[in-house]
Structure formats: structure tokens, C-alpha cells
């Protein structure tokens, strides 16, 4: 099992090919960002607040704030559930995103002697995307993308998470953007269904 997890972790570096989304840079301190099934995995309630500012001293540089809550509800020794939420605000240039995510996760004991659990989670997203600059006063017939920018738009989405974990290791997968949406800047572009696989092992 240990060799399998280590091999899967190494191979995952060769399977990924995408531009990094800044909010997921916080997965070490807030793992429920990239997999909702982590909600309720901790034996306690956890509230996290994160602030990130890039390029200090430069006006309009990227900034990001994240507030998350991870609440455990223990049903019995073999079953527990988790409730949580994530609120994050991301500002990158003239584009901004404010997202509110509600998460529910159910955990089932797989092996009591080794403390191994299986978690299933579903999350609902409400996002507000837009631009900070008013582009309606700009009339540039040579730039159709600039003329088609939406100043403000509400989007609804969902994601699903699956996690197999213990105190020593974790193996999970998550699926994002279950609903397709058009970009606020280029209507020819649509969001696509995304998935990821992650694994970790604690060396003692």
C-alpha cells in the first residue's frame, strides 16, 4: 500500500498540465480548498483566515483573502459528518472574484484498528465575478473581447470530493466545475469539467 501511494504521488506530477489557480496555493494550511471531503476529517472545529498580497508596493497588485470553517459532528464511533464553508475574495488586475462555498461531508469508518476513514463530500458554490474598471465607456471596434466584458455576473457551481485517509496517509480525488459557464471577458470560452488526484504520506 505504501509503495502504491508513493508511486501514484510521483506520477501525478507528470499528469498535470494547467495554469495554477492562486486560491489552491493554500492547500497546505486549508486542504478543504482543493478537496471538500477534508471537511469534518479533523477531530475538532477549525476556523482559518488567510491573507496574501503579491508584489508589495505596487498599486493594484494581486491580493487574496480566505476565510474557512471546518466543523465536525460525531454521530458515533463508526460514522461522522462535517459541515463547513469557504469565503474567498481574489483580486487580480482589473478582474475580481468573490466566492462563497457551502460544504457537507459524510465520513465512514473503514478499518477501526488502523483508524482509516472514507469521506464523501458535496459543495455548492456561489460566485460573483466582474471587473473593477468601467469598460462601457471604451468604444474600440478593433477589440471585440474588450467590448464584450461583463461588469458583474453571478455564477452557481458545484464540486464533489472523495477521500480515503488515516493519521498516516491520505488518498483523494475531487471534481470541479460540474456546471459549464461562459467567461465574463470572452464568451467563446467556457469552463470545463476538472478533476484532480492527490496523495500524502507522513514519515515518522
Explain how this protein is built.
This protein is mainly beta and 204 residues long. It has one domain. The chain is built from two helices and eight strands, in the order αβββββαβββ. Strands 1-2-3-4-5-6-7-8 form an eight-stranded antiparallel β-sheet. The longest helix has 14 residues, at 2-15. The model has no long low-confidence stretch (mean pLDDT 81).
Primary descriptors:
elongated, 204 residues, eight-stranded antiparallel β-sheet, 2 helices, mainly beta, single chain, 9% helix
Kindly summarize this structure in a few lines.
With about 200 residues, the protein is mainly β.
**Oligomeric state of shown chains:** single chain
Largest sheet: 8 strands, antiparallel
**Helix/strand structural class:** mainly beta
Cα-atom radius of gyration = 20 Å
Helicity level, as a percent range?
Answer: under 10%
- What ranges have pLDDT less than 50 throughout 5 or more consecutive residues? none
Overall number of domains: 1
Amino acid at each position: 500500500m505504501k509503495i502504491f501511494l508513493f508511486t501514484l504521488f510521483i506520477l501525478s506530477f507528470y499528469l498535470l498540465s494547467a495554469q495554477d489557480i492562486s486560491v489552491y496555493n493554500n492547500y497546505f494550511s486549508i486542504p478543504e480548498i482543493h478537496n471538500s471531503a477534508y471537511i469534518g476529517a479533523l477531530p475538532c472545529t477549525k476556523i482559518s483566515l488567510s491573507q496574501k498580497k503579491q508584489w508589495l508596493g505596487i498599486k493594484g497588485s494581486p491580493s487574496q483573502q480566505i476565510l474557512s470553517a471546518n466543523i465536525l459532528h460525531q454521530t458515533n464511533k463508526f460514522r461522522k459528518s462535517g459541515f463547513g464553508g469557504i469565503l474567498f475574495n481574489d483580486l487580480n488586475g482589473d478582474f475580481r472574484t468573490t466566492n462563497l462555498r457551502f460544504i457537507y461531508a459524510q465520513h465512514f469508518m473503514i478499518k477501526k484498528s488502523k483508524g482509516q476513514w472514507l469521506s464523501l463530500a458535496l459543495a455548492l458554490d456561489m460566485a460573483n465575478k466582474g471587473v473593477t474598471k468601467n469598460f462601457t465607456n471604451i468604444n474600440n471596434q478593433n477589440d471585440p473581447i474588450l467590448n464584450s466584458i461583463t461588469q458583474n455576473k453571478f455564477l452557481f457551481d458545484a464540486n464533489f470530493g472523495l477521500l480515503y485517509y488515516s493519521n498516516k496517509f491520505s488518498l483523494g480525488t475531487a471534481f470541479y466545475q460540474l456546471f459549464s459557464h461562459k467567461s465574463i471577458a470572452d464568451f467563446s470560452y467556457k469552463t470545463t469539467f476538472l478533476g484532480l488526484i492527490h496523495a500524502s504520506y507522513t514519515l515518522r
